[in-house]
Every structure is written in C-alpha cells, then in structure tokens.
Amino acid sequence: MAHWIAVDWGTTSLRAWRIGEDGQIIDHRASDRGMNGLEPSQFEPSLISLVDDWLMPDTPTHAIACGMVGARQGWTEAEYAAVPCSPSQAKPTRAPVTDPRLKVTILPGVSQTKPNADVMRGEETQISGYLTQHPHFDGVICLPGTHTKWVHVSAGEIISFQTTMTGELFALLSNHSVLRHSLTGQGWDDTAFAEGMASCLARPANMASHLFSIRAEGLLSDQSANVARARLSGMLIGTELAATKPYWLGQHVVLIGASELSQLYATALSAQGITHETANVTEMTLAGLAAAYLSLNGHRT
Predict the structure, then answer these.
(1) How far apart are CA 145 and CA 136, in angstroms?
(2) Residues linked to residue 104 through DSSP beta bridges, in sequence order
(3) Do 90 and 174 belong together in one domain?
(4) What is the pTM of this model?
(5) What's residue 186's pLDDT?
(6) Of the candidates 270, 277, 275, which has an alpha carbon nearest to the alpha carbon of residue 133?
(7) Residue 301's pLDDT is what?
(8) Which phi and psi angles does 98 have, rounded to 5°?
(9) I want to staple 128 with a disulfide (CB 3.0 to 4.6 A). Which of 4, 66, 237, 288 is the partner?
(10) Which positions of the chain have pLDDT values less than 70?
C-alpha cells in the first residue's frame, strides 16, 4: 500500500506516484484524464480508477496534488498566494471526496497583479522542489511549456513572474492556421531555428509578417517542412526572449521543463551569451510535492 500519493494533474494528463514510508517511489502511473476533459464530479473517480489498489481499506491515504486540478474549472478551486511569496505560502485546499480510503489536498497557485495580471498552477511546485535542493538560490528560473514562465526568485520567495503563450501559439499556428500546410511531419533544422530566433529577437514587431513568409517560401522556394517547423519555433521563442529580456539579460538561468523544449531555450539563451543549467521537471515536481507533504504532516516521514 502507499504511505502517500504524489499527484501532478495538468490540463491534458494525470500522473500519480506511490510513495513509501521511506519516501521512495514504489510505483508510477499516468492517464490522459486531464482537467480539460473532466467535470468536477469526475475527478475523484478518475483518480481512484488509477490508484485504487494503492489505497488502504481502514485508513485514508493522503494524496497531495498540484497543477490545474486546482483551477476554477478543476476539482475544486485552490486559492492563490500573491507575490512576493514562498512557492507554497497559501493555505492548501481539501478536495471533496466520498471514498473513505482517500484524502486529497490540492496545493495553491501563485498570482500577480502588477505590472500585469498573471497566474501559475503547478510551476510553483516545481520551483519549490528546486528550492529544497538549492535553498540559497537567487536568480531566474524559466519553466518552458505550453505557457512558459519566467520567474525571479530571491530569499526563498517568488518576487515576480511573466508568462508567455509561446507553446500554445506554436500549436495553434501549426494545426489551425494557413501555416499548417507547410509544417507537416516532425523534422527539424538547427540553422533555420537559429535564423528565425535571431530575426524576431532583433525585430519582434515584424513577427506577424515573418510568419507569413514561412508559407510563401514553401510555395515559391519549396522550403522543406523541417525548415519551416524549426523557423516557426525560432521566431516564437525569439519574440518571447525580446519580451522577457529584463528577466534573462545578464543572468544565469535555470531551466525546468521537458528536455526537448528546454534544449531549444538553452540553445536560444546560449546564442545570447547567457549561461544556464537544467533541472529535471519530474524530479522537481516530486520534490515539491514531497516538501508539501512533510509540511502538512509535521515533517513526519
């Protein structure tokens, strides 16, 4: 049986880890039952269907969950902690459950009102995990993803952050715009990525016209899908870097995200002379969930 269960519940997927009394991972499971496909009443049965045999018959097993499960459209809304704050400063929220074998705590997100309204859910747990391993860290953490976060961390607190929709824009343009005709397949071209990134970092105001040139070059010059795909990615990341320059310029940046996407950001930052390091996103998520579990249970293991 599980001593407790770590849960990362995002927009499109659900991941759960069975944690033993010694804090080690015993088992890991995943499903595609993400927040987007569920009504509030479906969260509990979705989790139980994944971990039913991990639950003890006489004592509730505690599940600690982070991510979009705590969104307004999720299981139950978890409050936000306002910056500046520690990544887990706000009070966690108990999710309503009917199965006596289960107790579920949803971790809070983080919010910001100035200079622009912004929120995060899930990334704060990854930041918390990183800080458990680097408690004296002071600098910038970038979390590449569908909605990439640039976060200034100091003295154990999130001071400010900025979100860009770069990943979502790439998906929308690739699948639902005229560019989809030029972006078939999953190929890549490093030179095209670098050129697209440099052009839009230098002149972000020209991005909209540069985007259409991808389609035009496919029609007039038979540009390959590999080149088109890489150029689009480079353009979007270059525009993002132009918008987030106050976060990364002159900084050493920590990247926490999926390895392939983090590598693109590492390449883009290296081209600007920015030093960086990467941290495994799953390990940071689990470290953050473990820190929350220990905090909620009086540091008992």
Answers:
(1) 25
(2) 63
(3) no
(4) 0.94
(5) 85
(6) 277
(7) 38
(8) -110, -20
(9) 288
(10) 1, 299-301
